[in-house]
Amino acid sequence: MSIFEDLESEVRSYSRGWPVVFDRAQGSWLHDESGKAYLDFFAGAGALNYGHNNPVLKQALLDYIQRDGVIHALDMFTVAKRDFLQTFQEKILAPREQDYKIIFPGPGGANAVEAALKLARKVTGKESVINFTNAFHGMTLGALSVTGNSMKRGGAGVPLVHATPMPYDKYFDGAMPDFLYFEKLLEDSGSGLNEPAAVIVEVVQGEGGINAARMDWLRGLQELCRRHGILLIVDDVQMGCGRTGPFFSFEDAGIQPDIVCLSKSISGYGLPMALTLIRPELDVWEPGEHNGTFRGISPAFVTATEAIRTYWNDDDLEKSTRAKGERIAAAFSGLVETYPEAELTAKGRGLARGLEFASGELAGKVCAAAFDRGLLMETSGPDGEVMKLLPPLTLTDDELTQGLSIIDESVATVLKKH
């Protein structure tokens, strides 16, 4: 593995916790070059909701390449883009009575966020954006400005401005009513708060520690934004495409964001793709005012279309995701009860689940112990104190059972030593 250490930047991270060379992947499994199999409860940080090399999506991709379908097209019209737009409208937007236009902002989630922030400021003529404690929205400068993690913010090298953090749901552990602080600052002419163009929020904070907002809190946030003429942006990059159960993570709350950011699993196959959904009246862009070389990657359109046709014709995947999520929740609650002295906390929704430890050191040791036993997990939270699960939504019941067994053993090993 010396070639990686010799030539690749020190900025690499995941390879430090999983120091093997991976070679093949299928479904919920990764295999290293020696042939050892690892059950994947990481799933490309949520980019592989339908598993590795999903055979249905792979065949659609191979067929498209075999017929010399257009690969790169910027924002030109293509058959692949038309098929995607029609399918997304018919299978996702129309059944949910959602009326959005679609921006293809570039290949990644940060591109979707940057487009949302730029458009909100253009529409409203205001500069300030409200974000939330422990939020993560990407690593480009605009996205970093609305991100909470101090280590990631510190990498910017310049002041991150025009954004103001507010407390996320349960940040004060019920010590004050929801939005008391936020609303007071909005209504007090002496508060010094710049009038915001938008609020950006994650329904479940993935990198922030699997913090799941209550439905009432989300509804209250939308009502507050509408009352004060503030645009509501939902960052659904990691929690969208079925991760929490429904296609959009905000569906259970019954809210209608003004702007929605999607990426990661929208292509279905781990290919680069991002969308920024906007209410039609917000579409005030000039031609080319926001663009990017890789905003029209046709292979991603192909696999995205096939994923929607395959998995979102009915609610089977949604029901399965909720049921498997409840199995994890029950298992984690059992660990909380088994080790009361460890003060563990079970967190999450759907198949975005976390187990919070007293320190990042303990959570990291549990993930390392799981890796030794053939299971991939990462940590999240401000100090890496949350063991984070993002398995493929398509994992089998047996695979879930196997993964939970490894987690039980890993937690027991680490906590008994501690």
UniProtKB/TrEMBL annotation:
Pathway: Amine and polyamine biosynthesis; ectoine biosynthesis; L-ectoine from L-aspartate 4-semialdehyde: step 1/3. Keywords: Aminotransferase, Antibiotic biosynthesis, Pyridoxal phosphate, Transferase. InterPro entries: Aminotrans_3, Aminotrans_3_PPA_site, Dat, Ectoine_EctB, PyrdxlP-dep_Trfase, PyrdxlP-dep_Trfase_major, PyrdxlP-dep_Trfase_small. The lineage of its organism: Bacteria, Bacillati, Actinomycetota, Actinomycetes, Pseudonocardiales. It comes from the Bacteria. Its cofactor is pyridoxal 5'-phosphate. The gene is ectB. GO terms for molecular function: diaminobutyrate-2-oxoglutarate transaminase activity. Its EC number is 2.6.1.76. It is an enzyme of class 2 (transferase). Belongs to the class-III pyridoxal-phosphate-dependent aminotransferase family. This is Diaminobutyrate--2-oxoglutarate transaminase.
